Amino acid sequence: MEGPVQIASKTQVLIVGGGPCGLMLSMELARRGVASVLVDAKLRTAINPQANATQARTMEYFRRLGFADEIRALGLPADYPTDIAYFTRYTERELARFELPTSAEAASTARDQLGGWNAAELPHRVSQKFVEEVLRRHADAEELTSIHYGVRLTGFEERDTDVIATVEDVATGETQTIEAGYLVGADGARSFVRRALGISYTGETGVSRDFFGGKMAAIYFRSSEFYDKVPHRRAWMYWAFNPDRRAWCAAVNGRDEFAFHTQLKPDESEDVSPERAKEMLAQAFGAKLEVELLSVDTWIAGHALVAESLGGGRVYIGGDAAHLFTPAGGLGYNTAVEDAVNLGWKLAATVKGLAGPALLPSYAWERRHLATRNTAYARQLAESIGNYVPDPLIEADGDAADAIRREAGEYLDGHARREFAIPGITFGGRYDGSPMIKPDGTPPPPDAMNIYVPSASPGGRLPHIWLDDGQSLFDAIGLDWSLLVTDPANNSAARFRVAAAELGLGLIVVELARPDAVELYGSGLILVRPDQIVAWRGTANEIDPLGLLRELMGHAAAAPGKTPHASSGQNDAETLLRG
């Protein structure tokens, strides 16, 4: 940022943090007519690859905002395979390979609903640095957003009717006060906002494993000879599985850029010199490789942490400020985007005076519940790969070593299918027990990592369907409340429209009088929240639409149990992250 701070002194929402959660939240608010100011101490969006997988649910939300195709065009070339491949070393023996479609094949694969993917979009393998550039560009284009990198939050005071925050230009030291109706901390693992609230992480940290447990080195490099020297078919992710150097290496652009991660052994220094970085690359590669180092950093694997509270009153947290993952399954950044979507519609309704007192607090309850679920799944995947130790003879010659490699290949193939085909995690998260859901007494489908059972049982994601004109159902329902009508004889839509209008809510009615829709959705009427979660289903004869919508907007429901901001003390995770 150049020159003095040029920021509005008053805004409806102040967002701290310009990563995926903060940028997504700014757009969700703007599309609903709510202004925000976003500040981030960094000078720009990410320059390192960071997260490498955008899950299908995140892509569906990008589609709703209009730029999923733009995201899918980034990263790897359209015809580049997104396989997960395991080797003793990259230039030596291949142990296993899980083949996955290219980005060019994604649209047709999604329409065919293959592999349990009931989806408008499939996952996309793209580095977070590319995603953040798109998010920032679209956030900047919104009239109601004001994005400021190079500005840090230095303090805030929460009052009954607003939050008074102080920000500082990191280049000049000039400070400014901002008055905001609400403040959201999406400011990362060392979140200033979370610490100021006295909220600690809870969960598992400091775990030691053979891999994904302890200090990791992250090496972002460029090499024009990588593909020429690797004697195997191209892959998106290359894993090295040997006793000397376990690692994974993700292709960033499909030409010459790569993100390499390896666990540091107990006797290896955390200060990784350029020479040592190149040695570690060569160990995993199995030969000397000419590289240009773009960055070398370290990070800690072994986290499965969720904040004690996601806030309350006029201050909330999301993203890494609220939960920390070991990146098995690629769930951290994707969970952060869902935080923004859940908070966005509830915060906008609250700012505009449409919500009752229970709606906004439900964000903290619902998303903490999902973060606990998702970190547990990530931990399972980290244990699956991290506790599987290479046999000392895996690189030897002879029949016994061949048998060891076959056994390892079978295990790694099974693990890849568990980690990289996860429609159950992606689509199966539910908000059962939330006061913003009206249950109908039907049992929810089982929550399983690799199996998604489409169900319109209230509390879960609306199952997807392709419409007769080839459009996605999610394109038709938009950003507001929606009512699906699968019974052509049901004339209750007008009552819902009247009720929604009385409460100032947008409501889109979609008629789906098709046998497959009747079977899929299981009722004549399905009421869907703005975050595409089924809130209620049934018939209008059994319920008052106005009373139902009032309850689901937080006017008549009791707020979920509030966790106070303050913590009794900072736990070991806080000490570890203080760094």
TrEMBL record:
<keyword id="KW-0285">Flavoprotein</keyword>
<feature type="domain" description="FAD-binding">
    <location>
        <begin position="10"/>
        <end position="375"/>
    </location>
</feature>
<dbReference type="Pfam" id="PF21274">
    <property type="entry name" value="Rng_hyd_C"/>
</dbReference>
<dbReference type="Pfam" id="PF01494">
    <property type="entry name" value="FAD_binding_3"/>
</dbReference>
<keyword id="KW-0274">FAD</keyword>
<feature type="region of interest" description="Disordered">
    <location>
        <begin position="559"/>
        <end position="579"/>
    </location>
</feature>
<dbReference type="GO" id="GO:0016709">
    <property type="term" value="F:oxidoreductase activity, acting on paired donors, with incorporation or reduction of molecular oxygen, NAD(P)H as one donor, and incorporation of one atom of oxygen"/>
</dbReference>
<dbReference type="InterPro" id="IPR036188">
    <property type="entry name" value="FAD/NAD-bd_sf"/>
</dbReference>
<dbReference type="InterPro" id="IPR002938">
    <property type="entry name" value="FAD-bd"/>
</dbReference>
<protein>
    <submittedName>
        <fullName>2-polyprenyl-6-methoxyphenol hydroxylase-like FAD-dependent oxidoreductase</fullName>
    </submittedName>
</protein>
<dbReference type="InterPro" id="IPR050641">
    <property type="entry name" value="RIFMO-like"/>
</dbReference>
<dbReference type="GO" id="GO:0071949">
    <property type="term" value="F:FAD binding"/>
</dbReference>
